[in-house]
Design brief:
17% strand; TIM Barrel; alpha/beta
């Protein structure tokens, strides 16, 4: 079903977007504030994505913290999805859970309906679900294209066994993409689980940026084209 192992690079800045393209990524997850786990990108990044030669999937997450549906939050989510669809982006990345720890079927169906024919990825909110296998079946049932997971662990390499189990359960019905802490040092171990894609920022601190530490602003991380290329080379030889 999936002819080659894909590399999705998550970016939250224009220079990271350019580096991901230069390095040979297959797909872009477009975000803001990756340091907060990724939030909905702003109009400037969306405009850049329109001209990007790669498919761009926008994170739909209006606020940091948890992944619960709230009335105002759902209004923002649906408006953001409408904006991404109007902009012509290829897909959206979503994840909403109930207080009980299940994927929120009602909220996600509303998102699916708003997305129309856009690609849908269920993000790592699924790693908070009390029954990931049941969540996988719900994602399949709603027509999601892929699941991004770390195997319910802080990093994908720590969740290796669960990721492998999800791949077996998916059985080609939905793409399983490993993410969190993915780099060229652990890519082969993750590929061995049977995943269809890897997800990472391929980022490091940009030494050329302005030092803002005097006012309490930490250095930002920026995607490196060389790191993307290194990871992609391993992936192309590892399957």
């Amino acid at each position: 079903m999936f002819p080659h192992l894909e590399l999705e690079v998550c970016v939250d800045s224009p220079d990271s977007l350019s580096a991901a393209v230069e390095g040979g990524a297959d797909r872009i997850e477009l975000c803001s504030a990756l340091g907060l786990g990724g939030l909905t990108p702003g109009p400037g990044m969306i405009a850049l994505a329109r001209d990007c030669p790669l498919p761009c999937h926008a994170m739909i997450r209006p606020a940091p913290g948890d992944f619960l549906a709230r009335t105002a939050g759902m209004q923002a989510i649906l408006a953001d999805i409408a904006a991404m669809r109007a902009a012509g982006l290829a897909g959206i990345v979503i994840g909403i859970v109930t207080p009980q720890g299940d994927l929120d079927a009602d909220a996600l169906m509303r998102c699916r309906d708003a997305a129309g024919d856009m690609d849908i990825t269920i993000h790592r909110a699924i790693d908070l679900c009390r029954d990931q296998m049941a969540a996988l079946e719900m994602a399949v049932g709603m027509g999601a294209r892929r699941i991004l997971t770390s195997g319910a662990a802080p990093t994908a390499i720590q969740g290796l066994d669960r990721i492998a189990a999800l791949c077996r359960a998916a059985a080609g019905r939905i793409q399983i993409m490993a993410g969190s802490g993915v780099d060229d040092g652990n890519a082969l171990a993750l590929i061995a689980t049977g995943v269809d894609a890897l997800h990472g920022s391929c980022a490091g601190v940009d030494g050329a940026q302005q030092d803002c530490s005097a006012i309490g602003i930490a250095p930002r991380k920026v995607t490196s084209a060389a790191r993307v290329r290194s990871l992609k080379d391993i992936m192309e030889g590892g399957r």
